[in-house]
Amino acid sequence: MSIVFKSDRFFKFSLVLVIMITVLVPTLSHAEYTWTEQTGAGSRYWLSISSSSDGSKLVAGTYGGSSTHGSIYDDYIYTSTDSGVTWTTETDVSGVWNGITSNSDGTKLAAVSSGAYYLISYGDYIYTSTDSGSTWTKQTNSGMSSWNCIASSSDGSKLVVGNTGVGYSDGYIYTSTDSGATWIERTGAGSGYWKSIASSSDGSKLAAGISGTYGGFIYTSTDSGATWLERTGFGSRYWYSIASSSDGSKLAAVAYNDYIYTSTDSGSTWTERTGSGSRYWYSIASSSDGSKLAAVAYNDYIYTSTDSGSTWTERTGSGSRWWYSIASSSDGSKLAAVDGYIGRFSSGGYIYTSTDSGATWTAQTSADSRFWKSIASSSDGSKLAAVDNGDGYYGGYIYTGVSFSSSLTHRLTAPTTTSVYRGGYLGPFSSTITNSTTSSTYYMYAYIYTSDGSWILQTNSGVPILNGQTYSPMNSNVYVPYGATTGTYYYYEVIYDSSWNQTEYKYFSYTVN
Fold first, then answer.
1. In the 8-state DSSP scheme, what is residue 86?
2. Dist CA 187 CA 248 (whole Å)
3. Could you check whether the bond before residue 473 is cis, i.e. omega within 30 degrees of 0?
4. pLDDT digits (tens, 9 = 90+) for 489-503
């Protein structure tokens, strides 16, 4: 017996089917991710992406329209509240989204646009949302400028942004302590081409770096941006990226065609880390406590540190690549970096992940070779979201990846015959789920997605799989009703944890004649 289940939770899975490109999701090991091309958000020139701590809420921005031969027009912000399964186009905001940030729970978002068409900046505004992106507010009191970078406190109440100015004028840092409702121009830090900015979890300690034609200094604040200090001890550099520990005491910054610099006193003093060499550094990430760091250089290697930057190790296992972005889990054990090389006859690069603080790396070939621009991670590193910038002629897609604990093994083997007639059984196929944890419980639900758009919940659904148990569904066949219409059907097995978070799904397709 089977019943039609129409709750919103399970009906959303119907949208997943449009992006299926294989008939069986492979079994995962501890270092692997299942990747999904999220076509629901469209093919675009994706520029930035941000994630809530649990990875359930995502927000992404582009710098151009659809994938129609190098469109240079503004585009929208796209949000998801189900880990990227479905996406909403926020058509009330349009811009060139250089930076997007999210608070821990994903309810408070802020985005900055430059209003730039290729090399010309016409300026734009800061935009904020306090309902996970359902509605957005243009913050006109901050003025119109070429906004370039943004950071948020953990609760989203304190924001700091940097801009590059409009035309030939440099810009200032702006701060807000009311989730973006009002803004203050911080002239104490001076004007500059603000390239990167970082915040402590409580928003009290800030650090920002200047790049631009002639470079500049790092500026720090310990009072939520009310006052700033210019850190001149190491000279003027082209600061590309800066990262902060949760408490703001440990900072790490990378300069383009220069060195990595670290501080353990909230930026009062800095140390030039020559051990990692002078390179074209592009991005740096930090663990919450600031002890584990990872940096990527353009057309070079990934470098990692486990002692707050005192010593660095060159990670040749991932190869010398055109690294654009790197993300870290809170504890620094899980890292993800993207290779986004765009060149003549190039097909781009891969996403690379590590689960041992960068000691070893795995190319995520199931996400294919793309022109990756940015990547975001959940706090535990189990959920990733990356954006494909396209090749300059055609746009790309958003991809989401989910890593499953090695304690959960799920195998689903498709039947050898997938073309069936009404009134019989599909099969045989096999399914085995093993839970080798000591304290977690999982739940398996099985569905049939029909050709008329309905989800049919199978009788072997809702079975708890306790710690140490192995479960093999009793009905290894699926009955094909006489009334079934001709078309393609999908058998799904979806596993949830005790909090109803979707942790894994596997499926196969079959055709009713």
1. S
2. 22
3. no
4. 888 888 887 767 667
Q: Which residue has the higher pLDDT, 391 or 177?
A: 177
CB-based contact 210:231 (threshold 8 Å):
no
Tokens for 293, please give them. 């760091």
Mean pLDDT of 210-217: 88
pLDDT at 239 over 90: yes
| Whether 57 contacts 415, CB under 8 Å | no
Please check whether the two domains, 3-11+407-512 and 29-403, share a CATH topology. no
Calculate mean pLDDT across residues 108-127.
Answer: 80
Instruction: Flag whether pLDDT at 161 surpasses 50.
Output: yes
The whole-number pLDDT of residue 1 equals 27
- Of 409, 389, 391, 408, whose CA–CA distance to 399 is shortest? 389
Q: What is the CATH number of domain 29-403?
A: 2.130.10.10
Count how many residues are written for the chain. 513
- What pLDDT is recorded for position 503? 72
- DSSP-derived secondary structure for 91-153: EEEEE-EEEEEE-TTS--EEEEE--EETTEE--B-EEEESSTTSS-EEEGGG-SB-EEEEEE-
* Distance, CA of 82 to CA of 399 (rounded, Å): 14
DSSP assigned state of 378: -
Nearest Cα to Cα of residue 282 among 332, 243, 328: 243
Q: Where are the domains of the chain?
A: 3-11+407-512, 29-403
Helix (H), strand (E) counts: the chain: 1, 46
Q: What share of the chain is helix, strand, coil (3-state, %, to 5)?
A: 5, 45, 45
Place of tokens 């049939």: 448
Q: Which residue has the tokens 């994903």?
A: 106
Angle at 24 between CA 22 and CA 26, to 5 degrees: 110
Q: DSSP label at 320?
A: S
Q: Is the four-CA dihedral 270, 275, 279, 285 of positive or negative sign? A: negative
DSSP state of 214: S
Average pLDDT value for residue range 41-59: 94
Mean pLDDT of 419-435: 85
Coil vs helix vs strand at 339 = strand
- Judged by phi (left if over 0) then psi (alpha if -120 to 50, else beta), residue 213 lies in alpha
Per-residue pLDDT, 69: 38
- Give the torsion through C-alpha atoms of 284, 289, 291, 297, to 10 deg: 0
Question: Which residue, 294, 306, 437, is CA-closest to 377?
Answer: 294
CA distance linking residue 134 with residue 82, whole number of Å: 14
Alpha-carbon gap, residue 145 to 308, rounded angstroms: 35
Give tens-digit pLDDT for 378-415.
999 989 999 999 887 788 999 998 886 657 788 888 88
Q: How is residue 120 written in tokens?
A: 């010309």
3.30.390.10, 2.60.40.3880, 3.30.450.90, 3.90.25.10: CATH of 3-11+407-512: 2.60.40.3880
